[in-house]
Design goal:
It contains 19 helices and two strands. The protein is mainly alpha-helical. A two-stranded antiparallel ribbon has the order 1-2. It is elongated.
């Protein structure tokens, strides 16, 4: 009150008590009234709420989220029926009296009503948690079902606004799409969830067509971008910023991103971790120097000759022992690294290419790449290209600083 009350604050307290009592009375009324109607029976009312003029109603959105939740649940090994039920009910409390009066309780009241109506507790928790995380400091969904519905909810938002070309630009992000992407990233990385984002975006774009061919959404959306890679690029950019904030080196992220285009964020994180550990070793540091030297020579000579030095290395004209050993070790390392990457064992992949350190050092010490004989020169440049190709199994070394 910014004043000293003559009665010691009794009048102020009494006034506050009246206001609080009235609000609690309202809440008690809404609680009693809302409990008379099961969440399932509230769903038709969502048809009267527009989510976005070009993306249809909240009811249509719930249908899409339910379909997507089923797909994600299959992918990560969650209970499909529970995930679909949680998705189906996750927005029902928006038309309850309580949330109409207290909007900040959305999701939370849905959980209370679901528990009251005998819904599976895991489904009820997912209804509460599907909005999470709502910011960088917010907690994450605790259960797999909650993770599924949260991912589906946020992914539907992103795919929808991408489809109608309402992407974030500069500092403008009116639909909080950056926050939605960051929420997906945090859930995926914290729970080690493997999702192929491009495939999922194509699948969900089809959901728009399948579910809303005659709907208000379909009539306003126009042709949908089935193979638009910009959403995955957007995720990759958000991931780079997030990992950098977590202490990862920006150049290492750039070195592994091109290998899968940012489609599998968990794989990117594992690659970055393995590469970071490798580069802390002597083998890693020295191999990096050798690969950069090979790449620099190739770049200069390819520019001079106007063509890349690709193709098979001719073993019959490998005149020096060091180049024969390097050729043999490159073939072995490339094969082992490829198999390790396919098995997603990135530490084993790094170990495989680490064996190139000694033969690469020996090659540069004893072999002249730009030999006067053009046949020897071209063959040795092809051998350098094999080094570049072998190490590219694990990272683009040209993007790594140092």
């Amino acid at each position: 009150a910014n004043t000293i009350a003559a009665d010691g604050g009794k009048t102020i307290v009494a006034g506050n008590n009246k206001v609080i009592a009235a609000r609690l009375s309202d809440a008690k009324f809404f609680w009693d009234q809302d409990r008379k109607t099961p969440l399932q029976d509230l769903l038709p009312k969502l048809e009267s709420i527009t989510f976005h003029a070009k993306l249809g109603t909240v009811a249509e959105r719930v249908t899409r989220i339910e379909a997507l939740a089923g797909e994600i649940a299959k992918t990560i090994g969650a209970d499909v029926e529970k995930a679909k039920q949680a998705a189906r009910l996750c927005k029902a409390d928006l038309v309850s009296g309580m949330v109409g009066e207290f909007p900040e309780l959305q999701g939370l009241m849905g959980r209370y009503y679901a528990i009251d109506q005998g819904v599976d507790p895991e489904v009820a928790d997912a209804i509460r948690d599907h909005y999470k995380p709502q910011g960088p400091s917010d907690t994450l969904p605790v259960s797999k079902i909650g993770q599924v519905v949260a991912l589906a909810d946020k992914f539907d938002t992103l795919v929808g606004f991408w489809a109608i070309d309402e992407k974030p630009t500069g500092s403008k992000d009116p639909y909080a799409l950056r926050r939605a992407a960051l929420g997906i990233i945090r859930i995926i990385l914290s729970s080690s969830i493997k999702l192929q984002l491009h495939k999922l975006s194509v699948t969900h774009t089809q959901n728009y067509l399948d579910k809303h061919t005659q709907s208000s959404a379909a009539s306003n959306m126009g042709p949908l971008p089935f193979n638009d890679p910009s959403l995955v690029v957007f995720f990759a950019d958000r991931l780079k910023i997030y990992l950098k904030e977590q202490g990862a080196r920006f150049d290492l992220i750039d070195a592994v991103l091109p290998l899968n285009g940012g489609d599998d964020m968990l794989m990117i994180l594992r690659r970055v971790d393995a590469l970071s550990k490798f580069l802390e070793t002597d083998d890693g540091k020295n191999l990096l120097a050798g690969v950069k030297r090979a790449s620099n020579i190739l770049r200069i000579e390819e520019k001079n000759d106007g063509a890349p030095f690709r193709g098979r290395v001719e073993q019959s004209i490998l005149m020096k022992n060091e180049e024969r050993i390097l050729n043999r070790e490159v073939d072995s390392a490339a094969s082992l690294a490829h198999k390790a990457v396919e098995a997603e064992d990135f530490e084993a992949a790094m170990k495989a290419i680490s064996k190139l350190r000694a033969p690469v050092d020996a090659f540069f010490e004893h072999v002249t790449v730009n030999d006067p004989d053009p046949t020897f020169r071209e063959n040795r440049l092809r051998l350098l290209n094999r080094i570049r190709e072998a190490t590219a199994e694990v990272a683009d070394f040209s993007r790594i600083e140092g």
